Amino acid sequence: MKVDRDMLRKVSALKLATPRVADGPLQGDRRSPRRGRGVEFADYRAYTPGDDLRLVDWNIYGRLEMLLVRLFHEDLNMSVQIMLDASASMGFGSPRKADHGAQLTACLALVSLLNQDSVSVRCLGGDGPRIIAKGQNTGAFGQVIRLLEQVEPAEQHEPWRLINAMRQRKPSDRAFLISDMLQEPEEIEKTLRALKGGSHAPVLLHVLSEEELSPNLEDAQRLLDSETGEELLIAGGARAKKEYEEALDEWLELLKGRCRRMGIHYMPVFTDQVVSDVLARMMRQAGITQGASGVS
Amino acid sequence: MSFIAPIMFALLALTLPVFVAFLSRKKVEQKSVPSLVIFKHIKAAEPRSRSFATPRNLLALLLYLLAIIALAIAVAQPSFEGEEPRDVIIVLDASYSMGVKTAPQGDETAFDVAKRRIKDDLLANLGPRDRATLIVGDVARRVHVEPTRDLERHIDALVPLKVSGLHRHVMQSLELAQALCDGQKNGTIVLVTDGMVPDGVAGFPEMSCPLTIMDVLEPGATTPANIALTRLAVRQIDALGNTEVYVEAYNPMAVDREVVVELELDEIVVEVLAIQVPAGRSAGQLTRVDGSMGSRLIARAVHQDGQADAISVDDQIYAVLNPVAWVNVLLVSDRKFSFMERAFSLHPRVRMDVVSVAEAASQMQDRDFVIFEEGASQALLTATPARAKVFVLGAQPGAGVTFGAEVERPVVTWWDFDDELFRYVDLDEVEVLTASPIQPVQGDEVLMRAGQDQTLLVRRQLGGRDALVMAFHPDQSDLVLRVAFANLVANLVEWCAASIEPPPAHVVAPGDTLLDAPGAKTLTLISTPDSTLTIPANAPVGQTGIWRIVGGESEGQIVVVNQEGYSESQLQPSPKTYATYPGWDEDEFSSGDRGAKLIRVLLLAALALMVVEALVMWWKSRAAARRVASGLLSTRVQDNEEVRR
User: Fold this and answer.
1) Among A209, A222, A247, beta carbon nearest to B41
2) Euclidean distance between the first and final Cα of chain B, in Å?
3) Which residues between 197 and 226 in chain A have a beta carbon less than 8 angstroms from any beta carbon of chain B?
4) Which residue of A36, A66, A77, B49 shows the fewest CB atoms closer than 10 Å?
């Protein structure tokens, strides 16, 4: 899959918004629920013997003659999982959905790594190394790029199995699934459930190309499913086009409804959209990304 | 090899549209899409289908063409030399001789054997494409089962058949078979018979189609015993019905036989005869019967204990006696007592009514003889039936006769001795009390005179009727006391009966049709009182016996049906000339008909080719799906391994 390195520069100023208080294992640039040493004041509590006297707020003692200890937010990192669907259906579109997805993946990974979030990137299926690129600093970014460039969309797989396989002991703070979700409703249900089960704040970046949105149905044609090999003869014509549009709407509504029910943030991404726009504008509007200063 | 229906090769023209369909088959674009998940839900998506008649590739085209060629050859009906389908016309001899039992103690007749052999030997050896026709040589002489391959129809038709014909009917059936055979491509006739044809092969009609004879009797079979009544002749010898009867019997056996014959007249046995008949010859006997007792005469051979008789149809023979001519007499008289009435009523052939003058006019219908003792008038004469005879007794000027003055005691001096009226009538010394002599006119026949110029009896026409006019009433003389009077009355009855003509009896042979009875509707069998058989008048009369005509101008007339001579009674087989017509040979008759087998093979091949073509197409589509599926499977295996790690 191709990754446009120029695009990476455009998103380097972005940051992933904290979906809830982060609880990553490493110290990062996120608020954690745990209180302890840090630079940001959080609260007071009563002094107990053994507390660090440097934490006692003497100003309050002077005023209220009460011994209170200052508490600070301990800054921890956010765990981010990025899963890119590399099934055969992602190989369609111009540009290919897989390439567009890879670009998104790379951008999201870079943004997270720049903000010292713990990132793991995996390609679901496809033809290439089946590894998870992990890291917390930009040094891991090269691994991510290599992974993305080595994997090609191919064949069919059951994403929910692979998503479940990636699940850690603790759910990740944010998980991104970049996929066209061209699956049967039962499979969609399982995939979304697996996504929700592995993250506190899952996001479905639904990549769609012109192939899906407005296929050419003017003539009768024999359609071959790129993943299952099934064949279907379509009569072609205006009626077929109309019926397809209605079926597509219905399918999209189904997907959105499922995401809504499971608390998964749904965001459609079209291959004709610029990735930087997607991250900078659309995802910012959705509260998924924010500027590096922390302002949304 | 040849072909029975070469025109069916026109089916090969079907290859053209198949070719055209193959060349112009619509190449539907095949396109790979990311997924069919959404496409499957639209109605415009059709399941993968194909036009049956359009081959998709060269292999399919080849299979199609081979199937069409196989079908065309099959439908053109190939046939190997010598095994062409045949039209077999079966003629079954149903003459009376076939009713003979083939074994002395057995129940099977020659006809039963014939039916069995037709079923087991003939029909069972027909080829699958052969057709069979059944003609039964009985009185009907018709096609019983039309040409068909449905052999069950023949078997069902055989069951109810019975013997009912003569040998000439069998020959006529052969002529019918010949006519049918002429129209067939490969026709052959098989005659199933006992071989008892009176004239042998010479009696056969001209046969141009191959004829084979299936003899149902075993070679060397013994001739069964049989006796036949061959003639029954009757002659009425007087007006009272006395009849001479001559009966003749035929003995075809090698030993002399005494044949006992009963003569039955209207169900009453009137005579039993014993006729000695030499071996191989005929003999007869003459007797008399009182014909006034009835009209239906049946001579019936009585078989004594121990005497065998093979055929029953020749054991009785029929004749009809002329019925006694009844004379219907009307006596017009107001007298309380009349000698004429007494005398006529005693006559056995007279049916008499006595009416007054006033009632006479209404009683004239169907009269043969009207006697006016008084009251004769022009009106009554006109009312008299035209064919009736009239007798005017005494002076009755109303009859249009001129009588002279009454004379006393005229003496009969002359009468016409030669006239039939006076046969056995002696008028010598008859005393007449009074008489009114008749004035004769031109045309009168004077039959009796007194003296030279006193006419006492004339025969003349009165009102167009034959009439006798007597100048005196017999009661006025002693004539009534004499024998002459009885004879005169008898002669008068004869004079009237002569105008009554007995209806003729029609004579028809068994199987013939009554032709000379216009308008006749039906014939009813009246041989015996319990006969109930009725047939249409225009149908062949199959059963021997006495029949009555119903309907038309011949209503009531009699038809006598007797078998002709002893042709059916002679049970010695005629010399068989199988040099002319071969005997039936099962091996030669059996049909191999490899052509039919070839047709079945070709049809199966055509079907198999179409099935193979469908299977090949199905396999190809599945192979494509399998290729995709195998790739998915390897992916899943790898994924699962990773999950396990």
Assistant:
1) A247
2) 76
3) 209, 211-212, 215, 217, 219-226
4) B49
Q: Which of B421, B401, B511 is nearest to B462 (CA)?
A: B401
Taking contacts as CB-CB distances below 8 angstroms, the residues of chain A near B54 are none
Helix, strand, or coil (residue B349): coil
Largest Cα separation within chain B, whole Å, is 171
The helix/strand/coil state of A52 is coil
Closest-CA distance, A161 to chain B, in angstroms, reads: 8
Q: What is the 3-state secondary structure (H, E, C) of B290-311?
A: EHHHCCEEEEEEECCCCCCCCC
Going by DSSP bridges, is the β-strand pair A68-76/A40-46 parallel, antiparallel, or unpaired? antiparallel
What residues contact A180, with CB distance under 8 A and at least 6 apart?
A85, A89, A90, A97, A206, A207, A208, A209, A212, B34, B35
Return the H-helix or E-strand segment holding B634.
helix B594-644
- B448 neighbors B412 (Cβ within 8 angstroms): yes
Tokens 């290729």 belong to residue:
B627
Q: Quick check: A16 and A117 in contact, CB under 8 A?
A: yes
Chain A residue with minimal CA distance to B631? A155
Q: Are B225 and B209 in contact (CB under 8 A)?
A: no
Q: Note whether B562 and B318 are within 8 A (CB).
A: yes
Token reading at B320: 């009809």
Cβ contacts of B476 within 8 Å, gap of 6 or more: B394, B432, B433, B434, B435
Cβ-nearest to B46 among A183, A211, A235: A235
% helix / strand / coil in chain A, to the nearest 5? 40, 30, 35
Chain B residue numbers touching A231 (CB-CB < 8 A): 30, 48, 621, 624-625
Would you call A43 an interface residue with chain B, using a CB distance cutoff of 8 Å? no
Minimum distance, in Å, between the CA of residue A275 and any CA atom of chain B: 22
Q: How far apart are CA B473 and CA B484, in angstroms?
A: 15
Residues 139-158 of A with CB under 8 A from B: 154-158
- The identity of residue B422, as a single letter, is F
Neighbouring-strand partners of residue A232: A223
Decide if A254 touches B, using CB distance below 8 A. no
Cis peptide before B502 (omega within 30 of 0): no
Contact B46 A90 (CB under 8 A): no
Q: Within B347-404, where are the H helices?
A: 357-360, 378-383
Coil, strand, or helix at residue A98? helix
DSSP character at residue B102: S
Q: What is the pLDDT of residues A227-264, one digit of tens each?
A: 887 888 777 778 888 888 898 998 999 899 999 988 88
| B30: nearest CA partner in chain A | A222
Instruction: Report CB contact under 8 Å: B621, A220.
Output: no
Q: Which two tokens stand for residue A50?
A: 């053994």
ipTM above 0.85, yes or no: no
Distance of alpha carbon B111 from alpha carbon A106, whole angstroms: 107
Strands A172-179 and A199-208 come out as: parallel
Nearest to B547 by CA among B311, B539, B247: B539
Q: Taking CB atoms and an 8 Å limit, are B640 and A161 in contact across chains?
A: yes
Q: According to the model, what pLDDT value does residue B643 have? A: 44
Which residues of chain A lie closer than 8 angstroms to B35, CB-CB?
89, 180, 182-183, 225-228
From the list A130, A221, A237, the residue facing B642 with the nearest CB is A130
Secondary structure letter of residue B26 according to DSSP: -
* Tens of pLDDT, residues A155-186: 777 888 888 887 766 777 888 999 999 888 88
A234 in reach of chain B (CB within 8 A): yes
B136: nearest Cα among B178, B170, B160, B88:
B170
State which amino acid sits at residue B356: S
Whole-structure pTM over 0.80, yes or no? Answer: no
What pLDDT score was predicted for residue B479? 86
